[in-house]
Amino acid sequence: MTGASSDNPLDRLADAYASPCGQRSAGLNLRGVWALYALTLRQHLHGKRWMIMVLLFLLPAALAILVRSTARDAPGIQLEFVFGFMLIPQAVLPLVAMIYASGIIQDEQEEQTITYLLIRPISKGALYIVKLLATVTTTVLLTAVFTPLTYAAIYVGAGSGVEDIPQRCLNAVMVHSLAVVAYCCIFGLLSLLTKRFLLVGILYIIAIEGVLANFPFGIRLITVIYYTRLIAYRMMDFVWQRPWGPINMAADAWQLDIVKDPHLLEHPAMKTCLIVLFAASIVCTLLAAIICSQREFHVKTPEKA
Q1: Closest CA to 138 of 111, 113, 169, 107
Q2: pTM (predicted TM-score)
Q3: Which of 3, 86, 184, 230 could form a disulfide with 97 if both were Cys (CB 3.0 to 4.6 A apart)?
Q4: Which DSSP string corresponds to 45-69?
Q5: Would you say 121 and 14 are in contact if contact means Cβ atoms under 8 Å apart?
Q6: 28: closest CA among 114, 116, 125?
């Protein structure tokens, strides 16, 4: 019925795509793009997937509280390194990105809404990019909220001996955000390349980001975590002052030979790391958009009674 308003998000999306004259716009309708972006954000922030994401992000903080309650003499810098720069970037962030990226197109197919979206005046490539941007926004917001929560669980009420904790927390948020953006773009591309995306994604997290990144060989140059670790190392120090001498936890755990190369001159500079991460994200996004624009999407149609 003309003039009736609907609470259905897809109906509102259709209204946004329509031109003021009641005809569909022939070009890229910015209102429609914004409606699709907002609708995707709403999808990401509701349902079971949202609850899984929250639980994943709460895990480091919960473990930090558990350790502090059972080992009260555990140094804050050690907990920060283990939970903030080992567990979160190597496990939590890639898992979050993989789960969210898997739904960029797949969710629309499973819910039988992809055809509805494709008849709107927006290309399939642009549709993918808009939904990816909403996914990136969601994961970065989650990172910005739960990384400080982990720091609070580690340092609040503890005699840390660490200076400028708020700045360290802000640095961690920035490093984690860079990582999760790159992961979203990579997993978004992988989701279009294989039907067994979850299996391939888990193998990627374990084999590429989990194993290869920890070997002191050139092969780690293809990993996201290698570049984020270098950025973190150059922004912060992870020296644990033990009674019998200091230990650089990051250099030891990340296989950085600071004895022969104390200034990491043999490794990419921070600017290079940033360029690599942004370039990889853009390339993966463009490749995925091209693949999406050339693909025919099929959905199940309701059977007639």
Answers
A1: 107
A2: 0.85
A3: 184
A4: TSHHHHHHHHHHHHHHHHHHHHHHH
A5: no
A6: 125
